Amino acid sequence: MEKRPVKLYNVIFPFWMLLFWPSPPVVLLTLFGNLAIDCLVVFLALLALRHPARGAVLKRCWWKVWLYGFLSDVIGAVWLALGLFGSWAITADGPVGWVDDFAMAMTANPFWHPLALAWTAVGVAIAGVCIYFFNRRVFRRAPELEGRQAHVLALTLAIVTAPWLFFVPMYL
């Protein structure tokens, strides 16, 4: 029996990748935390509207609200990434003062640069608008809800569950 030589290519790569890969507890906490917040906001908004079929609406719509919330957050995050990658493309030939400051603020603390703060605010607004329109569509299809109630629910979700954490600095 012939023994084959063992070749190890890029052995360090998987370990290095783990630094940037989200851990399962963080992912699960995020998933269930968003689910709990979305359901709580829908329930409290229905309670404020004095809607008699709160349970039926939640049972019908919870998973769509949850998934559309994640999709909206991803759309807002893509906007932020476009700003960051665009700034890297501009500085490929060498450092450019304000662009470097913008890129640093986008990665560390959006409050460090006015353009980074505005860019982040637009990202949060884009995600909020997406949350509104996606959920408005979901709630319009719920037979238990009237047009005004669907609007109020979607608007409440858009304002309360917009990705406000985009503003939280990674460094102070």
Descriptive notes:
The protein is mainly α. The chain is built from six helices and no strands. The chain has one domain. Helix 3 packs antiparallel against helix 5. The radius of gyration is 22 Å and the shape is extended. About 7% of the residues have low confidence.
Task: Describe the structure using short key phrases.
single chain, 172 residues, mainly alpha, 6 helices, extended
Summarize, please.
The protein has 172 residues and is mostly helical. 71% of the residues lie in helices and 0% in strands.
Tell me how many strands there are: 0
Number of H/I helices: 6
In oligomeric terms, what are we looking at? single chain
Helix content: over 70%
Largest beta-sheet details: none
List the helices and strands and how they pair.
Blueprint: H1 12-18, H2 24-48, H3 54-90, H4 97-108, H5 114-140, H6 147-160
Helix pairs in contact: 2-3, 2-6, 3-4, 3-5, 4-5, 5-6
